[in-house]
Amino acid sequence: MPFKPSILVIINFRARATDITPQDLHTLHSQIIDDVNRDGQRWIPGAVVKGQSVIRTMVISYLSEERHLQGLQAALQAARNTLRTALKIKGSRLSQSVTDVPQIAAN
After folding, report:
1. Tens digits of per-residue pLDDT, 68-99?
2. FRET pair for 59, CA 20 to 30 Å: which of 6, 24, 36, 103?
């Protein structure tokens, strides 16, 4: 049987916020990551790409299904909603969506 290479899906994205320093954006990403990972249902890391803080998502299990990605999307949006109020208090704004998290659909 010929070897068939696996596909590793990696998505990097950033929160869009106004009037925020790169260090504060990194802190914001860390808070989003902590909030998403808190319940133990999923795990996403942060990373630095070309000197900029990003949130990274990797689909590494062949057992992952559309519902898992939809759960991640919901968790990201919930984290955004939680942090939006805190940013308003500090005078910054977090956009309506966490970098327009793409709609996930099975092929």
Report:
1. 989 999 999 899 888 876 666 555 555 544 44
2. 24
